[in-house]
Design goal:
The protein has 73 residues and is α+β, with helices and mostly antiparallel strands. The protein is built from 2 helices and 3 strands. The protein is elongated, with a radius of gyration of 16 Å.
Length: 73
Amino acid sequence: MFAETVDTKKSVALMKKLGMIEEGVQRKQARTNDGIYCDLYLYGLLREEYRPQGESCEYKDRISQGQLNRRKP
């Protein structure tokens, strides 16, 4: 999963809450309605990092150990 945002506290907080990791910054890549250029923050979440809501950390451990049946991409 991939997402990008201009540095707004609410957007960043949501992405982190979803378990996404900041993967990089594209400096001066986004232009606001006022014509001001600002940094664009890139976030990602790999399939093996995804944990459905309500699942325990044990679920994530079982994925990393290859103990769950996973669908082929």
